[in-house]
Amino acid sequence: PFDVLVVGGGPAGASAAVYAARKGLRTGVLAERFGGQVADTVGIENFISVQYTEGPKLVNALEAHVRQYEVDIMNNQRATKLSKSEQVELELANGAVLKSKTLILAPGARWREMNVPGEQEYRGKGVAYCPHCDGPLFKGKKVAVIGGGNSGIEAAIDLAGIVEHVTVLEFAAELRADAVLVKKAHSMGNITIIAEAETTEVLGDGNRVTGLNYKDRASGETHKVELAGIFVQIGLVPNTEWLRGALELSPRGEIIVDERGQTSLPGVFAAGDATTVPYKQIVIAMGSGANASLGAFDYLIRH
Ligand code: FAD
Which residues form the FAD/NAD(P)-binding domain (predicted)? Predict the structure, then answer.
């Protein structure tokens, strides 16, 4: 059995594995796809001390760092069930069962997509999901935010300080964001909010986004907006469906952790975007992976 088994090969899981291995613990990493969301990222400008890097390059560096230690990397493997008696038992999609004294869950999250024509084609070429990451790329330009929930309105307020103009498109008739955020957005001069607007297509010139089409759901008419960027803010979904019933999740499905990354199940820790950590970023995921790993070490020396 492992001392520490990590589920997830993104920045949180990689960091947890390095910290565990450096304690001399028997460490394994299970990943459906090593690299996680970073593998889908084009430019990264906020990984502190590295002014610019690219997703695949950072994934290679993560893997090389983990491989520097005696870590058992099991890539292209999916965990499907977690149970705990004396040890943690993890069932995989291929039927195998792995046993470990402690577990670190870092299965990450996925952005909900609009599923409209052009979205995939222009991903990273104007279609973005993270205002903290990509906002500065649109300095002085026009952008849209899709979604009028808290994350959408927060993104609009954030972007309005950088870009020329923000159009918020909300599908429902009413914004779901907190009133205080909506009030702030309305006070900002360069934010237009359009409700009952269904985005139907991302438009581009072959290289980059040039605009979008949306349908006014009240009148049925289609309108075109010219812009350079589209921030999709319709939800970040944690990859925790398979953990329901095994440990405590928040109403949004995030794994509830304490300040040491400990979950409701003793000996099971969690880190990164799949948890209740409020902000989801690479440097935060790495920090929380290290934190959860030290939490697991602390647990092991007491049991
Ligand atoms: P993830 O990166 O999501 O990794 C999860 C890992 O778990 C993967 O290896 C996955 O295959 C695995 N996994 C999931 N479920 C299972 C299972 N059941 N069994 C086995 N393995 C499983 N952040 C920044 O700081 N700067 C940026 O510029 C930036 N740009 C971004 C651009 C895009 C397009 C996206 C999508 C995100 C971006 N982010 C950026 C956010 C950042 O990528 C995430 O915060 C970070 O990757 C989270 O790390 P994580 O390890 O928690 O999860």
Answer: 2-289
3-state SS assignment for residue 22: coil
257-270: b (≥16 Cβ within 10 Å) or e = beeebbbebebbbb
What atom in ligand 1 is closest to the CA of residue 282? 25
Q: Is the pTM here over 0.90, yes or no? A: yes
Q: Residue 87 pLDDT more than 90?
A: yes
| Closest-lying ligand 1 atom to the alpha carbon of residue 111 | 36
Closest CA to 229 of 255, 263, 203, 258: 203
Q: Average per-residue pLDDT in the chain?
A: 97
Of 40, 130, 158, 178, the active-site residue reads 130
Measuring from atom 46 of ligand 1, which residue has the nearest CA? 282
- Residue 163 in contact with residue 136, Cβ under 8 Å? no
**Alpha carbon of residue 218 to chain centroid:** 33
